[in-house]
Specification:
This protein is 8% helix and 42% strand. The radius of gyration is 27 Å and the shape is globular. The chain is built from five helices and 44 strands. The strands form ten sheets. Strands 6-7-8-9-16-17-12-11-10 form a nine-stranded mixed sheet, with helices on one face. A six-stranded mixed sheet has the order 40-39-42-43-37-44, with no helix packed on it. Strands 34, 35, 36, 38 and 41 form a five-stranded mixed sheet that branches. Bound molecules: (dicuprio-$l^{3}-sulfanyl)-sulfanyl-copper and dinuclear copper ion. The site of dinuclear copper ion (CUA) has 8 residues, from loops.
């Protein structure tokens, strides 16, 4: 045991040595002439648009960040799993149900992999799917509104890391289990993990028109750790591949105890076969409980539906669904090239990159060439499934993406570089240093049949001396690399937010023209508390609940004087922005509210609930500088003692002389 720990320390020291001796920051500058041309390449003139959208995950921030590339302008934060005081997402009454789970209201998650919907293996720009890692969930963002419209909880799982990757016609979105756990959950000794903990691979169907998700089926697997996933495409369409580590089934000091075996697995799942079994009525319905949250952009309101069952397929009873392919030790990413033939397994502890051949896997499966089995699941032969090995490309491979010219690009965490290699010959073609320790990388369409290989975004984990110091925590650096020529060239370096894992990038033409401008008040707002004109303005009392239907327009609230509110009341401000003009939001905030402000876009209705605790006069105001008279957009609420007999009243432009 002691020796193993020492060995590990050895690796850690080696890693830090490599990181700290990288040239960078103030030391390792390239020549000024190439710097100038790099600047030109990333330059987008004021008033001009970027060519690509990039949707970067925020990792532990729980959100998705929309950037324009090549300039790396931050265009929009899309709140997904975390409350967002800027928009009021997760604070407004309409959006609170989005964060509902079987564990209660959870205002945060760890978002790793946004993936854009596909049609015929090409990005179609309709939706982004993204995973919540900590409390297993999948979200769907609509790319017309740039808003999260759906979050579905994944039952029988723990650590939904290998998600949310879509198949090439968006038939399914996948969710896996990173941490083996008892399924169903129960109280048991942790040391009895081996053989008793389990994992689930969940396939969620996606409605072609609405995008709505539903759990189609779950495949029950041994309790290994499943890290990442990628769908087959083109010739391997119908399959899904998952990296699998901790086949040792260790439950403590995994850095040592889950690194013992020389090989782990790629778990290959034939989901078309699973689909056939489902059609034949196979599998068992298991009782469980999970939340399915949907936002309706017509009523501007989210609701939670509770579901209580899931269809489970057992691969030991239903042969032909699951195979284990031995692969590089402790693999992280698994990536499939645009043709669907090459499956790259990024063994994070190995010096070589293993490339499997789909045709060979298929042949071995068809001929039942199995060398062993694990928990009733057939294991294929390593050599029989191998397309080739990229010899000594770098140290610590994590992820690979592809261009349309037959090249692969892999990140190497330990040696801090991106290496370009030929997919067919596995020959290394070029390498470039990045600063420091890249995780994921992204090429527009780089995980589809049709990559658009002009730029590559490297998302690095460690910043050190790259930017002006800002205390102990530095934002992580993103680096944009021009990959259009033979030699990769770094053209931009910018700090990102949270911890981006994957990012999906897409040509702007696929999204920009359909982006929503306003909600039409006449036809696109069915909120029950909408104010369409002055005559809808109203305040009603229902016991302790007071409902305020309030309008907002440049530059006043209607009403702006309210009296008759009492301590102990719950005041619900239903705010409608009655503007019908693009990009004129109004905000609302009231003194002492235990909440955030609420930003309302034109034609939309949102609700902020406030419980005043003391008598007094409470100002409220518009938080967004909407006009020259924005500072005049304000009002007062009079709060009286609980036993007061002041009548409820409200007004705009009344009692002017007292
Ligand atoms: S991970 S840095 Cu969360 Cu996709 Cu590899
Ligand atoms: Cu409305 Cu400021």
């Amino acid at each position: 045991m002691m020796r193993q720990i020492f060995k590990l320390f050895g690796i850690a020291i080696a890693i830090s040595a490599i990181v700290s001796c990288q040239p960078g920051g103030a030391n390792g500058k390239s020549s000024s002439s190439s710097k100038k041309s790099a600047a030109e390449k990333a330059y987008v003139a004021p008033g001009e648009y970027d060519e690509y959208y990039g949707f970067l995950s925020g990792g532990f921030s729980g959100q998705v960040y929309t950037y324009g590339f090549p300039s790396a302008r931050l265009l929009k934060i899309i709140p997904v799993f975390s409350q967002d005081p800027q928009s009021g997402y997760g604070y407004s009454e309409e959006t609170k149900p989005m964060l509902q789970t079987s564990y209660g209201f959870i205002p945060w998650d760890d978002l790793h992999h946004p993936d854009i919907s596909q049609t015929n293996g090409e990005l179609d720009g309709r939706w982004i799917f993204a995973n919540g890692n900590n409390t297993p969930r999948i979200a769907r963002i609509d790319l017309q509104d740039f808003e999260t419209q759906e979050i579905i909880e994944i039952p029988n799982s723990a650590g939904n890391h290998n998600s949310a990757f879509v198949t090439e016609n968006t038939e399914y979105v996948v969710a896996g289990t990173r941490f083996g756990v008892p399924i169903p959950q129960k109280d048991m000794p942790i040391k009895d993990y081996k053989g008793n903990f389990k994992a689930s691979m969940t396939f969620l169907s996606v409605d072609e028109d609405s995008g709505e998700m539903d759990i189609a089926f779950q495949i029950r697997l041994p309790g290994y750790n499943y890290d990442l996933a990628h769908p087959g495409r083109d010739k391997s369409h119908g399959w899904m591949f998952f990296t699998t580590y901790n086949t040792e089934e260790a439950h403590t000091l995994l850095e040592v105890n889950a690194s013992k075996f020389d090989k782990d697995f790629i778990t290959a799942i034939n989901w078309k076969k699973a689909e056939e079994y489902v059609k034949e009525g196979k599998g068992t319905i298991e009782k469980t409980r999970y939340a399915h949250n949907k936002y309706d952009s017509q009523t501007h309101t989210a609701t939670t539906e509770w579901k209580d069952e899931v269809l489970v397929l057992d691969p030991t009873e239903l042969p032909g669904i699951v195979y284990f392919v031995p692969s590089a030790k402790s693999p992280h990413g698994v990536d499939v090239d645009p043709t669907g033939e090459y499956i790259v397994s990024n063994g994070k502890l190995s010096a070589n990159l293993v490339v499997h051949s789909f045709s060979k896997i298929k042949e071995a499966v068809d001929n039942e060439e199995f060398v062993d089995e694990a928990y009733g699941i057939p294991i294929l032969d390593f050599d029989n499934t191998l397309a080739g090995i990229v010899e000594q490309p770098g140290i610590g491979p994590l992820h690979t993406e592809f261009d349309e010219r037959g090249n692969a690009y892999s990140t190497f965490f330990i040696s801090s570089e991106i290496v370009k290699w030929d997919v067919k010959t596995q020959e290394v073609l070029d390498r470039i240093d990045v600063y420091y320790s890249p995780g994921h990388l992204s090429i527009p369409g780089g995980n589809s049949r049709k990559p658009d290989g002009k730029y590559l975004l490297s998302m690095n984990k460690i910043t050190k001396d790259r930017y002006l110091p800002v205390g102990p925590e530095m934002n992580q650096p993103g680096q944009l690399i021009d990959i259009s020529g033979d030699k990769m060239e770094m053209i931009l370096d910018f700090p990102m937010i949270g911890e981006p894992h994957y990012a999906s990038m897409i040509h702007a033409d696929k999204i920009k023209d359909k982006s929503r401008k306003i909600y039409r008040l006449a036809s696109e707002n069915d909120h029950p508390m909408v104010v369409k004109s002055g005559k809808d303005v109203d305040i009603t009392r229902d016991g302790k609940n007071v409902h305020v239907k309030m309008g907002m327009i440049r530059s006043h609230f209607n009403p702006d004087n309210i009296e008759g509110i009492k301590v102990g009341d719950k005041v619900h401000f239903h705010l409608t922005n009655t503007e019908q003009d693009f990009d004129i939001p109004h905000g609302f905030a009231v003194m002492g509210a235990n909440n955030s402000e609420i930003l309302v876009v034109p034609g939309q209705t949102k609700t902020l609930t406030w419980e005043p605790k003391e008598p007094g006069i409470y100002p409220f105001y518009c938080t967004d500088f909407c006009s020259a008279l924005h500072q005049e957009m304000q009002g007062y609420i009079r709060v009286s003692p609980e036993d007061s007999d002041i009548e409820l009243s409200w007004s705009l432009n009344k009692n002017i002389d007292g």
